[in-house]
Amino acid sequence: MADYPFYHSHIEISRDVLQSNARYLHRNLKSGTRSVAVIKADAYGHGAVEVARTVGDLYDMFAVANVTEAVALRKAGITHPILVFGVPVPQTVAAYPAYDLEAVVSSDEHFDQLQQGTAYHVEIDSGMGRLGIRPDDLERVRKRIASAGRITCKGVMTHFASADEGDGVYMQHQIRVLAQIRDMFGGQFPLHAANSAASLDHPDTHLDMVRHGIALYGYDPTPEPSEQLRPAMKWRSWVAQCKYIHKGDSLSYGATWQAPEGGYYAVIPAGYADGYRRNLSGKLPVRIDGRWYPQVGRVTMDYIMVWLGGDRYAAGTEVLVMGGEKNHAGIMADAIGTIPYEICCGIHTKVPRRMV
Ligand SMILES: *Cc1c(COP(=O)(O)O)cnc(C)c1O
Fold first, then answer.
1. Residue 102 resides in a domain
2. Active-site residue, from 75, 244, 253, 350
3. Residue pair 171/160 in contact by the 8 Å Cβ criterion
4. What's this model's pTM, rounded to 2 decimal places?
5. DSSP 3-state assignment of 34?
6. Residue 104 lies in domain
7. Is any atom of ligand 1 closer than 6 Å to the C-beta of 192?
8. How many beta carbons lie within 10 A of that of residue 189, not counting itself?
9. Whose CA is closest to atom 13 on ligand 1?
């Protein structure tokens, strides 16, 4: 705890929304299909330990990007199976058996590096073009698995590059490679491939297990988003100052915005150092007391300015900076040409997260 346990803004994560998203995502799974909650990058900025506790009953397994994230979950008392997507390296191989973590073998040498007794999944690169053993020689992979008796294969996985683009040519290509993977490994090892988008739009890819990331947090990555998924994250700050300016007076760096008439503006302590991206300058509104007001002028390191017109608010009044129907992370992402993943992960870790 800091000397003064007050930060100028905070993130609220809704337990109800996370659970309702998770339930919605499980509705279209065949019974017996297992599920992984992907909570890498501190659960896409939502707080991995709290998210794990909140949706643990609905998921069979968690997945993280690296051993550091996995060990933090274990130390917080999380007992579910944990899959570590990232590559095992000499510095981390001992952690897998020590903390009961499942590794992902994504190249031939990992078979030799992993320590005795480690559980692992083999990742085949069916077209993602990132980690994974290229599928040219699935027979060789099968032999490696068969001869790696010191370690235990618990699954064979692959990852889609464009499941969020509907039924495109590339997705069809990967689904064809998936069919080969199925022919080779189906029935012997649990198979998993589907991320959020495939889980929602491609039931044929569910196989034995699905992996939910972004949709769990409330952003539907498919071309026709469902109304059922709702953003779990709200970013709240407050009015630091509220002042009158005259018609033509300008606000913030570059003096890019002038008041259209005399009126009030509020200074809100959330800026690009917190993760309110500078290229959002002048693009989205904030909500104060149920009303929407435009953010105007440039976003600065620690503050944004908001035009209130004739309205006035006392210092300390709460402000919804992100997370409402007009300014959630999906809308922010669209406004600046990125994806909600990046917005959520981009809110600085120093901004406190609270479950509500
Ligand atoms: C991040 C990740 C996921 C989750 O993807 P979403 O699009 O967030 O559902 C699934 N599998 C792998 C291998 C990943 O890296």
1. yes
2. 253
3. yes
4. 0.96
5. strand
6. 32-217
7. no
8. 18
9. 159
